[in-house]
Design goal:
Oligomer: single chain
Structural class: alpha/beta
Strand content: 15-25%
Order of helices and strands: EHHHEEEHEHEHH
Helix content: 40-55%
């Protein structure tokens, strides 16, 4: 499974990260999202590509990898939408691809290619379930009773 994420769409779906952007800390928001997605990728073992527009600040490299998470910064001549469409165009199996975005143009394009779509809020709920699973409930019986006679 390949998951392609419109990075700023996902940032604005996470209140904590959106607040960082509002406080003019977009780099911190981006770094926290990268950290969250590295954790998710390590747990799910999916191929994950996080795509950001470069118009928010200057990014020297267009692609980098952190712990298996691929991060794409759209160059000034392109935007994240174009990068996401290019990724989908080069997929060997678009039906085994999921795109996380609110962008209507990308959603229409992805649907035509046969890829799956998920809105950022629903995707983040899934991410939280994976990286912060509920703690197992403690048994009601005392440990001595569970382990049996000594």
């Amino acid at each position: 499974m390949l998951i392609v994420i419109d990075g700023y769409n996902l940032i604005f779906a996470i209140p904590e990260l959106e607040n960082l952007v509002k406080a003019d800390n977009i780099e911190d928001a981006r770094e926290k999202l990268i950290s969250i997605m590295v954790n998710y990728k390590q747990n799910k073992k999916y191929n994950v590509v996080l795509v950001f527009d470069s118009s928010h600040d200057c990014c020297n490299s267009s692609r980098k990898e952190i712990s298996g998470l691929e991060i794409v910064y759209a160059r000034y001549s392109k935007d994240a939408d174009t990068e996401i469409k290019n990724i989908i165009d080069h997929c060997q199996n678009p039906k085994d691809t999921c795109v996380v975005t609110h962008d209507k143009d990308i959603r229409r394009y992805v649907q035509k290619k046969g890829s799956n779509l998920i809105n950022p809020e629903d995707f983040y709920k899934e991410v939280i379930k994976v990286i912060r699973p509920e703690k197992k409930k403690l048994p009601k019986e005392p440990a001595s009773k569970i382990s049996g006679p000594s």
